Amino acid sequence: MFIIAVISIAIYIIAILMVSTNIYEFKKEQKLNFIIIGVFAILIITWIIVALSSNGIQVQQEGFLKTAKMVSVLLFAPINTIFVLPYLGNVLNKYKQEKIKEDQVRKRLLILGIALIIVIIIEANYIKTFEIGLLGNVIK
Predict the structure, then answer these.
(1) What is the pLDDT of residues 11-47, one digit of tens each?
(2) How far apart are CA 95 and CA 135, in angstroms?
(3) CB 55: neighbour CB atoms within 10 A?
(4) How far apart are CA 92 and CA 48, in angstroms?
(5) CA nearest neighbour of 55 among 137, 118, 117, 125
(6) Lesser CB count within 10 Å: N end or C end of the chain?
(7) Do 81 and 12 touch, CB atoms closer than 8 A?
(8) Ranges of each domain in the chain
(9) How far is 126 from 120, CA to CA, in rounded Å?
């Protein structure tokens, strides 16, 4: 579990660096708020996806499933952060620089939302398969 946590932290560091380079027009406080709120929101969404995808998995001991869920959240939340926050920050940064107009921001956010829905559906199935693979012989 320690190695998974270290990997997760490393991926989060990469994600935060990617986000901060995409929101260079933001003030320090705005950058910090954007990153903290964004990471927390994606963490919650990932946790919900993991919780929903774990339904129906039966194990002999509930502790095994809890560990598989934790590993899934630790791995997928920072990866999701890398895919979402830098793009979102880039769009907001361009809007702040007045390089794109409000209607273009709406279109890009709509496209991002649609892409996220598709990714969430695919990811939910993948996470379930991932957890089953982690649990291996423990599943009934």
Answers:
(1) 999 999 999 999 988 999 999 999 999 999 999 999 9
(2) 46
(3) 8
(4) 26
(5) 125
(6) C
(7) yes
(8) 2-138
(9) 10
